[in-house]
Amino acid sequence: MMQIRPFDLVRDGEAAFALWTEALGDTYPLDQETFLAHALACLMGRPTGAFLAVESEQAIGFALTERSGESGYLQALVVSPTRQRQGVGAKLLNQCEGQLRSEGCEKLCLGRGSSRLWTALPDDLPQARAFFDAHGFLPQSEVVDLVIDLREPLAVSYRDRLTAAGAEVVPCTREMLPDVLAFEEREFSGWVSGILRLAAKGEEESVLVVRVGEEIIGTIQTFSPDSRTAGPNLVWRAAFDGVLGGYGAVGIAESWRGKGLGIAMCEAAGDSLRKAGAEFCHIDWTTIADFYARVGSRVWRRFTMMSKEL
Question: Which are the contacts of 89, defined by CB distance < 8 A and separation ≥ 6?
Fold first, then answer.
């Protein structure tokens, strides 16, 4: 008889990873270290956020959630291919929804969250879309993940744009951090937490800062191949035939836009990743693919944002 039990990372981590590899490894390969790191991040201080479906002590399904305030995020729902369409996924989902309700959540989203694997529901998993449609999830918007081949040389030197504006791009230092956080809070408050996570790992220099004199006018968060911060930009490194880096949270102060500085900042970030050994740059969760196409990006995957009220 099938049972749904609380997931224990130490006891069940390898079994859950094996399920992922069996069900999704061909399309969305993960290395075990990345999988376990993201599971740990979701469950930190919240050990009741994941469940394992077992039958005769054999793992047949796994679900992982994250919570922030009144929103819950379903980061994984995986069922062994031999047990799909038999109610295993529905029971795991029901368990997750009940747990999140008990924690005060009012909405459940697919993906998203700071410890996400996927940005949202991948468009190339039609059976998953049918499942979530049937369980009351509603689509909101379309987003994409992008990739840049960093082995291609820069077409134009970004330094020319910076020089024309009297600007420079520098790594954030510990001394600069208060001013960088103040800028971010003022211009892009939703990205403050990302900078804090990098700083907590001693990686504040991964935030590149655009400044004119002492005035901070832009920031971008980068993730080198050996980054200690388990960010979403490095999740899919096993899917690339080359070394992966990434960047995100790209922002220029409103009063400085229209001068090409956002593009210059992206090019500087790509150059920094090249020097760190990256061959590809992953950009997750964006609706402005046309902007990033100017620095050589292409669409890697498409996603549909979906959620349901709890």
Answer: 61, 77, 79, 131
